[in-house]
Specification:
The structure holds two protein chains of two kinds. Chain A has a single domain, classed as Response regulator (Rossmann fold). In chain A, strand 3, helix 3 and strand 4 form a beta-alpha-beta unit. By secondary structure, chain A is of the alpha/beta class. Chain A has seven helices and five strands, in the order βαβαβαβαβααα. Chain A is globular, with a radius of gyration of 14 Å. The two termini of chain B are 63 Å apart. Chain B has a six-stranded antiparallel β-sheet. A three-stranded antiparallel β-sheet of chain B has the order 8-7-9. In chain B, strands 10-11 form a two-stranded antiparallel ribbon. Chain B is elongated. In chain B, strand 2 and strand 3 form a beta hairpin. The chains are: A alpha/beta, B alpha+beta. The interface between A and B is medium-sized, with 23 and 23 residues.
């Protein structure tokens, strides 16, 4: 069985490690990025099944990253869950307008995080674009 | 259902008639049928023909993966194991017959293994206090190649094994305990000169096989395996895995760290050094209290005892942490003497409301001392909590890494304040007037230069 890969983008190493630990226990492979540019590189290299994206990041903010991904035909299907400390309606709307799939407020509960991630990982293999057949095979081999 | 009722010869509870007596009675009268013994989620089905045991099945417990264990011991290769897996289609009772049919295990060894498995299961059931039994005329159609076993000799050995468990006394091991070797010991194992028995158990401690499974494959009583595991644990060659507990513990501690990291990030918008330090005090005291609440639930000596009175938890926490706090206060950070334990929580109200008593440099000095003291206490509390709850387990090591990252984030904030202090000290000679006017050099400079408040590195984002 193939293992899905989740990309965690957050400038706090603490948050990255906690999310990694939490998801790995659920048999999910986790890769991490500490800033916007590394995040985009990881998306292109690894084609994650889901992205957990912090909003305020060094160099490029989460809204901007989200917009770039949504404009790319190859990656636009990837679900993006935004992680933010702002829980106002305006912030949530902004996230949605940028193209996020879901919005989680910090501090998040790890059980809630797992539940949300799993919800968006249903049928993740089917969402992989055909041009990434090679990547899918690679993931199966890893699994 | 009606058929089943008619089929039943006798039934009752184990407190009235123990398993030993029931089996002896059935053996003496030479009965044929199936004896069902239930306790909690477990059920034992013993098939008897003319008073002898011909088959046995255990339900409600995970079936040991015999094939994997034989592979780990080098008694079966992976290809054969895979072939058997495909042939049995997940039915564990077919494994031994196939091994015999293929000639990969001798009929004598098969008989020995089947006998051992029957004895082990009956020995376990002999220790049940609560439960029910029922004897039915019908024989269950169980696949077995076992030669009939004499009940008396099985009982004798089963009772001996049950006694061994009793002799173990208070042990944290159960037959479902799973152990795994510690990764960092691989180089040292050769130097310890372990006997073959220990090495076999160590080989099977891969974090997947239960104590019961290890006993079964090695044909060694469970109590003996428990002793060997205890010894390996003492030698720090293995760790015990309690998946459910570790999962719950990891989740709870992760939430505390995430919450504390969030508080730390939020407090970064402080406009003055006092505010910055106050934010750190709030973050750390909240984190300490979170850890106390967590430890009240998961401390080794408190868990598994159901709902405990709050007073007992409070007493435990005070016994564990009050003295180190007092020691820190006496030896290094006197400001911590104003912090007290109330209902198992660290009360820092006096420190947090210091601004009502003092102002300016003196307030900053008090806050600074409190930050250093709480940082030291926080480190101590976390390492104690982790050591007690999970020790040097995989979960423990993972949590330690996450914790290290969080402490680094706190240290970065503390370091930024230290830089500001150093700057203030060097400027003290030159900027008496600035100081007297209450203008904070570094924090003020940042505000005008970057259009933002706070030190460059302490500038935490508000997300």
């Amino acid at each position: 069985m193939a293992i899905p890969t989740v990309l965690v983008v957050d400038d706090s190493p603490t948050v990255r490690k906690i999310v990694q630990m939490t998801l790995q226990r659920e048999q999910i492979r986790v890769i991490t990025a500490g800033d916007g540019l590394s995040a985009l590189t990881s998306v292109a290299d690894e084609m994650p099944a889901l992205i957990l994206l912090d909003i305020q990041l060094p160099r490029m903010d989460g809204y901007h990253i989200c917009q770039i991904i949504r404009k790319n035909l190859q990656f636009r299907q990837i679900p993006i869950i935004m992680l933010s400390g702002k829980d106002g309606l305006f912030d949530k709307m902004r996230g949605r307008l940028a193209g996020s799939t879901e919005y989680l407020t910090k501090p998040f509960d790890s059980a809630e995080l797992v539940q949300t991630v799993k919800k968006h990982l249903v049928d993740w293999e089917a969402r992989m674009p055909p041009q990434h057949e090679g990547m899918r095979t690679r993931l199966r081999r890893r699994g | 259902m009606e058929q089943q009722q008619q089929d039943r010869i006798m039934d009752g509870d184990l407190q009235t008639l123990g398993l030993q007596s029931i089996l002896k009675m059935l053996a003496l009268s030479g009965k044929t049928g199936t004896l069902f013994v239930h306790s909690g989620p477990e059920t034992l089905s013993i098939c008897l023909r003319k008073g002898q045991i011909v088959a046995l099945r255990e339900d409600g417990v995970p079936h040991p993966d015999l094939l994997s264990m034989l592979c780990l011991l080098g008694k079966l290769d992976a290809a054969r194991a895979q072939a058997i897996r495909e042939a049995t289609r997940g039915n564990p009772s077919l494994v031994l017959p196939i091994l015999m049919d293929q000639g990969w295990m001798s009929p004598d060894e098969i008989q020995q293994r089947l006998e051992f498995a029957v004895t082990q299961s009956i020995s376990h059931a002999l220790r049940w206090v609560d439960g029910r039994f029922a004897f039915h005329r019908q024989l269950l159609p169980l696949e077995t190649r076992m030669r009939p076993l004499d009940i008396d000799s099985v009982l004798l050995e089963a009772l001996r094994q049950a006694d061994e468990w009793e002799e173990l006394g208070e042990t944290s091991f159960t037959r479902t305990t799973v152990a795994r070797w510690l990764p960092e010991v691989s180089k040292e194992v050769q130097n310890i000169r372990l006997s073959k028995e220990y090495i076999d158990v160590l080989c099977l401690s891969n974090g997947e096989q239960s104590l019961q499974g290890i006993a079964l494959v090695l044909m060694t009583p469970e109590a003996r395996i428990a002793r060997l595991l205890e010894q390996l644990l003492t030698l720090r060659l293995i760790e015990v895995v309690d998946t459910a507990l570790e999962g719950a513990l990891l989740q709870d501690l992760s939430n505390i760290i995430i919450m504390s990291q969030h508080t730390l990030a939020q407090q970064g918008q402080s406009t003055s050094p006092e505010q910055h330090l106050l934010g750190l005090i709030k973050t750390m005291s909240t984190c300490i209290n979170g850890l106390f609440i967590h430890h009240g639930k998961y401390a080794r000596s408190l868990r598994g005892r159901g709902q405990l009175p709050v007073s007992e938890i409070v007493r435990y926490l005070e016994r564990r942490f009050l003295h180190p706090l007092q020691l820190l206060a006496r030896q290094h950070y006197p400001i911590l003497e104003t912090a007290s334990f109330i209902n198992g929580q660290l009360d820092c109200t006096d420190i947090l409301t210091l601004d009502k008593l003092v102002r300016g440099d003196q307030l900053e000095e008090f806050y600074w001392e409190a930050v250093q003291g709480l940082a030291a206490f926080l480190r101590m509390v976390f390492s104690e909590v982790l050591r007690d709850e999970v020790g040097n387990s995989h979960t423990g090591r993972q949590l330690n890494t996450a914790w290290k990252y969080f402490l680094e984030e706190i240290d970065r904030e503390v370091y930024e304040y230290q830089k500001y202090r150093a700057y203030k000290t060097t400027q003290a000679g030159h900027n008496h007037q600035v100081q007297q006017l209450g203008i904070v050099p570094n924090y003020g400079i940042q505000q005008s230069e970057g259009g933002q408040k706070g030190l460059p590195q302490t500038q935490r984002r508000s997300i």
